[in-house]
Structure formats: structure tokens, C-alpha cells
Specification:
- The chain is mainly alpha-helical.
- It has one domain.
- It contains 3 helices and no strands.
- The longest helix is centred in the middle third of the chain and has 27 residues.
- The N and C termini lie far apart (about 55 Å).
Length: about 80
């Protein structure tokens, strides 16, 4: 599928250079790989966000406060 994408000249140059080193005339394959990688990363980040949100309420307020205090004490000891 053909489409128009606006990009910075330095990005276009870098993509063309990478494609050239791979023996490719255009940068469509390189751009396709980049898009696939980005989309896979987004899916992974969303899974991690969901897992993180599922942890809400898994410790009590008292446990959370104790953890905050311990973390603060550790940070102060680093100095």
C-alpha cells in the first residue's frame, strides 16, 4: 500500500543510508520493520500497564506507608 509520510530530512537520510547498507533501493522494508517493532512494543507496554493497574490495592495503606518510609531512609543513606 502506498501512502505519504512526512518526516524530518535527517530521518529520511538515515533510513535511506540503512537501506543502502542492506542493499535495498528504498527504505520501505526498514520503515516496515520499525513500525512492527514499535507496535509490538506498544502491545507489551499495554500489557505491563494492565498488570500494574491490577496491583492496585494489593497492599494495605499501612504497608505502603512502611515501604515509603523505608525507601526514604535508604535514599537518605545514599548521600
Amino acid at each position: 500500500m502506498r501512502t505519504t509520510v512526512k518526516m524530518k530530512p535527517e530521518h529520511r537520510s538515515a533510513l535511506l543510508s540503512l537501506a543502502s547498507r542492506r542493499g535495498q533501493k528504498g527504505f520501505s522494508a526498514v520503515l516496515g520493520e520499525a513500525i512492527e517493532s514499535y507496535l509490538a512494543g506498544e502491545m507489551d507496554r499495554e500489557k505491563r500497564r494492565k498488570a500494574f493497574r491490577a496491583l492496585a490495592g494489593s497492599i494495605s495503606e499501612q504497608e505502603a506507608e512502611e515501604l515509603r518510609k523505608t525507601a526514604q531512609e535508604l535514599r537518605e543513606s545514599w548521600r
